[in-house]
Specification:
CATH class of the largest domain: Alpha Beta
CATH superfamily of the largest domain: Periplasmic binding protein-like II
Number of domains: 2
Radius of gyration: 22 Å
Number of helices: 18
Low-confidence stretches: 1-28
Largest sheet: 6 strands, mixed
CATH architecture of the largest domain: 3-Layer(aba) Sandwich
Shape: globular
CATH topology of the largest domain: D-Maltodextrin-Binding Protein, domain 2
Helix content: 40-55%
Number of strands: 11
Distance between the termini: 48 Å
Strand content: 5-15%
Length: about 425
């Protein structure tokens, strides 16, 4: 009950704040005409779905003539449904989209938001470059991010203390050593699985691959995999993924990394000491462990990684066939306000409004990584790779960790997939 009261209070305060600072674009929706904005998503019952409902509810209080029809679509064929709807022009006004190259893949039925959302509002948002042509924010975004996401490690402080792990591991060797102590103490050192998500892979491998690439050569490690300057089967990748595959052989992971579906639950139950996850689960962890859980940078390198994967992972795009484009754009502008940031924070997510803080201590720890800790910020690797390469990696990279595919065999497959990508999508510029 207390959590509901806190959330309601935050929402009420946010509404009051918005009422005092509503933008001219926002007020354009405040006519007497009744408007229904249809919004499609595939968020299920996640925190992101909670935040979406809270944002739309807050907006309708300010604009009683506007209602939202929130349609939860199945995850497995969500984008096929969107494409079919675009052909018939019978789909939503707003559609949940991932950012990065994934969003640009579907931009043919989205509207560039430059000019529809004010420049001042766009300037308040972070990571808009990852939803713009060639990742150039000046060209205008196609997606308004819902939140700021970090892809990061979480660890149980009590488990570390009981196992005698006195410092968070910062490289491969320290990680292997910590794993040995944790396993002896009865913990699964790092738990892998799917967590019940429908992702086309048995765990999400791009968390790990992102930090491996950053650990090799900073930001160039990401772009070089796109352009082919660093081939997937290069010597440096073979060396890195050999150390990665050793996580299982050295007992750092659960034995069933390819079949487990309750990895998040194992961490919440205290059976696992570490998990590689995203900030959509932070609230679950802090609700369970309080200040006994913290974030750390996955140490998938021979040297400490001074970077963190931070991205606006999901947001809403305006379809180019929407009959309510002005009203929908006004809602997207509202998402850039401080009041909207408060609603997102109350839902347990990190606001994407520049300069925002968050009430969750672990989420704030990640913001501090990025802002004051000397950590550079990098995009999620699967958001800056060709779609065919990502689809292949969803299957091949887990298989390497699970011991079903050899390092060299798996990386040779990845290299062949990259070579099959059209030449115009293997340049120094993202397309």
């Amino acid at each position: 009950m207390r959590k509901k009261v806190i959330f309601a209070s935050a929402l009420a305060f946010a509404l009051a704040l918005t009422g005092c600072s509503s933008s001219s674009k926002d007020s354009a929706a405040g006519t007497d005409k009744l408007i229904t904005i249809t919004l499609w998503h595939n968020l299920g019952d996640t925190q992101n779905a909670t935040a979406t409902k809270a944002l739309t509810d807050a907006y309708t209080v300010l604009h009683p003539n506007v209602t939202f029809n929130l349609v939860s679509q199945p995850a497995d064929n969500y984008f096929a449904l969107l494409q079919a709807a675009a052909v018939s022009k019978s789909g939503p006004d707003l559609a949940l989209m991932w950012t990065g190259l994934f969003a640009l893949k579907y931009k043919s039925y989205l509207t560039n938001l430059k000019g529809l959302v004010s420049d001042a509002a766009l300037a308040r948002e972070g990571s808009l470059e990852w939803t713009a042509d060639n990742f150039d924010a000046a060209s205008g975004p196609y997606v308004m991010p819902l939140d700021r996401q970090f892809y990061i490690g979480f660890y149980n402080k009590d488990a570390f203390a009981k196992a005698g792990v006195t410092a968070v591991p910062s490289n491969w060797d320290e990680l292997y050593a910590a794993c040995g102590k944790l396993k002896t103490a009865g913990y699964t050192p790092i738990v892998y699985g799917n967590g019940g998500q429908s992702l086309g892979a048995l765990y999400y491998p791009w968390y790990d691959a992102s930090y491996i690439a950053i650990g090799q050569s900073s930001v160039s490690g990401l772009r070089d995999l796109y352009s082919g300057k660093n081939q997937w089967n290069s010597a440096i990748n073979i060396a890195s993924y050999t150390k990665y595959a050793a996580l299982k052989s050295k007992g750092c992971t659960n034995s069933d990394v390819l079949t487990k579906t309750n990895n998040v639950e194992d961490f919440l139950d205290g059976k696992a000491a570490m998990i590689i996850d995203g900030t959509w689960d932070t609230k679950k962890f802090t609700d369970q462990f309080g200040d006994k859980v913290a974030a750390f940078v996955p140490p998938f390198s021979d040297n400490p990684i001074k970077g963190v994967v931070e991205f606006a992972g999901q947001g809403f795009g305006l379809t180019n066939y929407s009959k309510n484009s002005a009203a929908a754009a006004a809602f997207l502008e509202y998402m850039t306000t401080d009041a909207a940031a408060m609603v997102v924070d109350a839902a347990g997510l990190i606001p994407n409004v520049n300069g925002s803080t968050t009430s969750n201590a672990v989420n704030q720890q990640m913001l501090d990584f990025a802002a004051t800790g000397g950590f550079a910020r990098y995009p999620m690797l699967d958001n800056v790779l060709q779609g065919d390469v990502v689809d292949a990696g969803n299957k091949i990279l887990p298989s390497i960790l699970g011991g079903k595919t050899s390092v060299s065999g798996g990386l040779n497959q990845m290299a062949q997939v990259w070579k099959s990508v059209p030449a115009e999508n293997r340049t120094e510029s993202y397309k």
